[in-house]
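Entry for flavin-adenine dinucleotide complex. Fields follow.
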Amino acid sequence: MTVSAETLAAFRAEIGDIPCHDDPKYVALKSRDYFWYSPILNAQLDGLSGQLVVQPRTEAEVITVAAAIARHAIPLTIRGGGTGNYGQCVPLEGGVILEMTKLDRIHAVTPGRVVCDAGVRVEKVEEAAAATGQMLGMFPSTKRQATMAGFVAGGSGGIGSLRHGMLRDGSNIGWIRVVTVEPTPQVIDLRGADILTVQHAYGTNGIIVALDYALVPATDWTHAVALFDGYDRALRFAMAAQDGGLDCYLLTVVDRRFSRFYKRLEGYFPPDGDAVFSMVAPDAMADFTALVAAHGGRISLAQNLHALEAAQLPAAWECGWNHTTLQALKHEPGVWTYLQVAYPQPFDPALVMAQMARYGDEIYMHHEMARMGGAVQIFALPLLRWTSRERTYEVIAEMEARDGCAIYDPHVVTIEDGGMKQIDSAQIDFKRRADPYGLMNPGKTRGWTADMARKAL
Ligand SMILES: Cc1cc2nc3c(=O)[nH]c(=O)nc-3n(C[C@H](O)[C@H](O)[C@H](O)COP(=O)(O)OP(=O)(O)OC[C@H]3O[C@@H](n4cnc5c(N)ncnc54)[C@H](O)[C@@H]3O)c2cc1C
């Protein structure tokens, strides 16, 4: 389904001088994200495009656009930095792409909190926080490109989740301001549990225009690489560091076979050691070093960010979360894809070793230490050698049925088939209020069916 030229012209006339682009090449570029991590999504989404990119600069302009979208019943896909992995900001039915990156003011930085516009890049907020001796409680490894609202609406957690849990936990998000898509849009502030109605909703139920986010006192983290003789040793070390409350911000465990992708770390991550990439508080380095030794490991690199940058070495966060996958895809495109795996509790490294033995060269392991709802949660983002859709789902089924793992399927476009597993009725209830005509990111939630939409004007 695409929108007629007449309808788009009428829409443009209504939004006045709000920046608008219809050059097909530009629009096509703004219709993509990192879905190509998945050959399955690539086959499904490559070539899909919106018809117009609109770039509001203020909340008032967002309201003007939202009203015109509703009046003309145009499909609307919101875009931040476009770094999502699941085609979250790929328009499935054409229409308007609402690019939020010009709505980028930071309103206030106070002790423990930042209030900012939706489209500000995460790194810019980080810089403003640093000027007050603070840092973000958690950030995605894509912070240079990703926006604050894109992280909130499309992400789940990231660097810092080891200490502060996932985005949905505690007061990581203080409040969110949303504009509804209807002829007379409302502005709604969501607080407490209501935040979860739009967090990780892929922009299907309201346009986030501003938010309040957690800051923590800045630490001059030591970025360390520790090497171990065996993936289980590396895992056990990371578990001991987390269980023992060692003051770390990141603990990423990476299979030695990744070393050929980490060219910039040549010598620091050799092919004969499994690595733990960490961000460690300087005060905790002595304990960290002792724990590494106790697990039979050695530290090959330990420097702060300033020294790393001077030596042109990557920060630890560029070696973790989905940046790990990116390293492989850069060097061996088409060879790899990936999975997202949660393990049964209590986590047992023996299960990981059994999986490694079972899959051999088909899977390279990578684990992230995190917290979820206050409890330790260990995720894997393993590389999977790409062969076919059938084989991918065979491996997923085996890990779920045989190993008791839960797979957050990164090869699907809907919220439910990916992370959530089930329809979140609170998100759908809020969609009835914030997107009553069902125009937002159509096709991305199974919880919404055409019969739920209010009749267009
Ligand atoms: C190399 C790599 C590493 C990554 N690491 C992480 C990680 O550590 N943690 C993590 O959680 N994710 C990670 N991701 C996924 C992604 O980068 C994050 O989710 C990121 O924060 C998304 O921000 P963005 O601005 O690029 O959002 P986009 O990709 O532009 O959008 C994401 C979703 O949010 C919606 N959206 C955007 N802005 C708004 C708004 N104002 N209102 C309502 N909805 C909106 C979009 O419609 C879309 O559905 C990674 C991806 C890559 C490629």
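NOTE: The longest strand covers residues 207-217.
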